[in-house]
Amino acid sequence: MGRSMESQLEIIPNLFLDRQEQLRHRDIMNLMEYPFFAISKQPVFETRIYDDGKVRIEVKPGHRGLATIWDKDILIYVASQINRMLNEGVIVTQKVRFHAHDFFISCGRSAGGRAYEDLVSAFDRLQSTSIRTNIATKNGQTERTFFSWIKSGRMTERMINGKPVLGMCEVELEDWVWRQIVEDRTILSIDSAYFRLTSGVARRVYELARKHCGRQSHWTISLPKLAEKIGYSDDDKRNFKRFLGQIVEANDLPEYEVHIALVGDTEGKRLADFRSVRGIKGLKAVFTRRPNVLERRDSQDVLDRRAGDSPKRFEQHGPCRDREVLPLVEPEEMATAEDFAGLLQRFASGKIVSS
Questions:
Q1: Residue 41 CA to chain centroid, in angstroms?
Q2: Strand, coil or helix: what is 95?
Q3: 109-126, pLDDT tens digit by residue?
Q4: Are 171 and 103 in contact (CB under 8 A)?
Q5: Is the pLDDT reported for residue 233 higher than 50?
Q6: Most exposed: 64, 86, 280, 341, by fewest CB within 10 Å?
Q7: Separation between Cα atoms, residue 256 and residue 216, nearest integer Å
Q8: Residue-wise burial string across 57-83, b where 16 or more C-beta atoms lie within 10 A, e elsewhere
Q9: Crossing angle for the helix pair 72-87 and 115-128, to the nearest 10 degrees
Q10: Residue 88: predicted pLDDT
Q11: Which contiguous run of DSSP H or E holds residue 326?
């Protein structure tokens, strides 16, 4: 190995931190607001365009199709890790390393079956999907931006029982994504139950509710506008009404309930059989915050502030000089299970003394 095991031992707790603590997930607000990702698990090879007169987004697929809303879990996970490292006063860079198994656990995924193959495909789509947009920055400056979701990604893999298994992963974020997380600080906490939503439409509906409802008791949006925000084209809006009906009936969105009402109804009374109404132009969705959501968030915010997570802290963010940051271990130098077993034996024999 290129580095002594004693020096690697100091780094081990950082690599497996996710297994010891509950990571509070954060999403990027602009990614919650606009339909950047495909909502189907079937490959999408058509260029998608969203244009509301102010913001224009053009998303072009790579050789595996458009990046999907499930691929986005990687960006959420990385943004959450960066946010936590900032809380802890650790210097952050656009390159973030994590263990594949930790990602699966944090995002509520099974580590078996095709999980590792799917993760490789997700990396590929995030890197090969190209985006053009004119979304304004936090300071109001508008610019035309061309980027992919990640600049690069790499993974280590080992053969176990004749099958390749992923180990450490590394993602280098694109500048636009990095700025949203670290410089503009335009991120929001999301409920971990988000990852249990199996429908791409349900995920988009929750994202929009979380982004717009905020601390309000309710939020309304017309169905045509909601369909556009989710990413439906005019040809698909009949399917949108069907999927939305399933979400309303299931009533299992995290933090929010949703029902359908007539646009002209100022009280927003629930329309029991909205499917009988022709089309969607005369309908609106009414989102209502579930009980105790704010109390739960506020209690978590208190914990965040104790950890140093405050707007003032991040506005002044710069190199942290009160903590030594250990050098990163290159993936090819990662310790094996045999190495760890050897370390434990050496501890037991007294050859290594903890500081």
A1: 17
A2: strand
A3: 988 778 888 999 999 999
A4: no
A5: yes
A6: 341
A7: 11
A8: bebbbbebbbbbbbbbbbbbbbbbbbb
A9: 90
A10: 87
A11: none
